[in-house]
Amino acid sequence: MHKSLSLMVIAGLAAACSQEPSAETTAGPDASETAQPAAKAELGDWGFDLAARDTSVDPGDDFFQYAGGAWIRETEIPSDKSRYGAFNVLIDRVDERIRALIEEIADGDHADGSLEQKIADYYNSYMDTEAIEAAGLDPLAEELAAIAAIETREDLLTALARTRFSGSRSPFGLGVGVDRKNPDRYLVGLGVGGLGLPDRDYYLVDSDRFTNIRVAYEAHIADMLSLAEIDGAAEKASAILALETRIAEHHWPRADRRDRDKTYNPYTVGALAEEFSNFDWPRYIEESGYGDIEDLNVSQPSSLAPIAGVIRETPIETWRAYLSYHLLANHAAFLPRAFDEEAFEFYGKTLRGQPEQQPRWKRGVQQVAGRGNTLGEAMGRIYVDKYFPPEAKAQMDDLVENLRDALRARIENLDWMGEATKEEAYAKLSTFDPRIGYPDKWKDYSALDLEEGDLIGNVRRVREFYFNRSRDRLDQPTDKIEWRRNTPQTVNASYNSQFNQITFPAGILQPPFFDPNADPAVNYGAIGAVIGHEMGHGFDDQGSKSDANGVQRNWWTDEDRARFEERANKLADQYDAYQPVPDNFVDGRFTLGENIGDLGGLSMAYYAYKLSLKGEEAPVLDGLTGDQRFFLAWAQVWRSKIREQALLAQLKSDPHAPARYRVNGVVRNMDAWYEAFEVAPGDDLYLTPEDRVSIW
Prior knowledge:
Blueprint: H1 5-16, H2 63-74, E1 83-85, H3 86-106, H4 115-127, H5 129-135, H6 141-148, H7 153-161, H8 163-166, E2 172-178, E3 186-192, H9 201-204, H10 208-227, H11 233-248, H12 254-257, E4 266-268, H13 269-275, H14 281-287, E5 295-298, H15 301-313, H16 316-330, H17 337-352, H18 360-369, H19 376-387, H20 390-412, H21 419-430, E6 433-437, H22 455-472, E7 494-496, E8 501-505, H23 520-537, H24 558-576, H25 592-612, H26 626-638, E9 640-642, H27 644-653, H28 659-667, H29 671-677
Parallel strand pairs: 3-5, 6-8
Antiparallel strand pairs: 1-9, 2-3, 4-5, 7-8
Helix pairs in contact: 1-20, 1-25, 2-26, 3-4, 3-18, 4-18, 6-16, 7-14, 7-16, 10-11, 10-17, 11-16, 20-21, 20-23, 20-25, 23-25, 23-26, 25-28, 26-28
């Protein structure tokens, strides 16, 4: 299936990455219009859906709309989604495949303890809604009784510490990660949470929009408590909202929460207890299951004392209500239909604008095979056997190496970075560890036992399996082979700064991101730019704080860092001006890492594409030059629609800019785009050359 990629993409890249791109290689309008790829691509004839364009829009005014406006106009967001685009199309495709595989497994008889038996029992227990209705709240009876029995501050501390096991929520959370300054060891991290709404702004901003959301949230809390027949639901809901508002006041702003310098604060347990003495940290850590640790990292230290004060000052009765509500809300999908529908009414309809709940099977697929605490890697092993041949992995390995060469060439040509810093950058680039398709070592699920017909029990068992797995590795060297975030079927890609790894799961290696039969310009503008994006994270405003070995340290000269920051701040200022929702702007500092990744990724992919032409002109296909097809491919990847409520939530909680600005905000900084589409002063997206940002 993927063999033709070698002819169309890889060979050209490999042969050309040692030479400078020619300024004369952009094809003119008189180039040949007869050349076509050897086989038809999935989208259109050569990888782009021409019918999706809105050619009534000038590309220089709104490139996002020009490239996909007809599709946007004619496409309705499915009623069970809050957004719809290329990612969703692929997620739906993968989910259908996973569903077929799971249902085949679920219908069979399997040996006790086999992966197939565990998958079948978990999925079948999720899908057995009759059993869920019959059980009512009985599966949570023990946890609800324990919450109701809280009488003292000591009882409360124990309950808050054990929310990891109960499935409720706490203002403080502990988890195992990698020590950013010593990536060979694991380290417990102490973070701040406790909110039921996406971000502190939902509690603290006084606009009508957020006020209405808070009113709806309070009503939702009351309805959930009433369904559980908890007395005084309305009063308790009001108290819970007031409590969460007080907690939100002490959360750091979004941009600070992603600043690696500010969030790396190592403490011994003794020092933590001494400095923040208004909370019993040793006992909290003990009750959380980490009693024998000596040190940890605190992500938001200035929040600890004031939130501990909120814990101490809030009446026990309010905490009982808070813990009961979040226990119910976090298990709503596993409870009778009334709880599930009430949770969706608020979190789906109100917060994301989604008219209908996803079908039960789709949610079951995500529960069993999605990211996070699931059987996703077990399911992924079966998925790649059928849908991702080994030769595809080898071809992607080659493509990544050629993008690495292209980035090195771009670093060599940087006029703002000195040689000493460049040498460090080359070292980091050389140690990038790409993981393609699926892991080299699969997770071992032998310690996980699941039972037929016990949904919430199975949810707990999976939760405890992952907790035990993470806690037990604290005294072991870090595992640099495992996949920490993604499954093979994940439609996404990622960068891990501690191990300097870039990961491209099999799920994303499909059109429009990757098509072996597509025009090379399309593959460069799509998967090439995604590869470049993930590499770019190693050199964005935060990833650039770690060196070739993943150690968080400053490897820059002061002068070079200042020049980098000047360019990064200029890009952040551009994004600060974008207003996707009335009176709500993109946060340029919060999204800066992703925006640098987009700009750098597309820039290095374009550089690699030009190298692949070896000084020749690309053919013109359907009246479009190679450069035009390259940029259209990038826009096609991000072509999407989103409901306003979901867009607002994205602005407040997601470090990625909305899709429109991942297109328009990037291309307007690239000289080649101006030339390709004859963008000129007076066009809405036009930036003067001195206002354009180029970093990598």
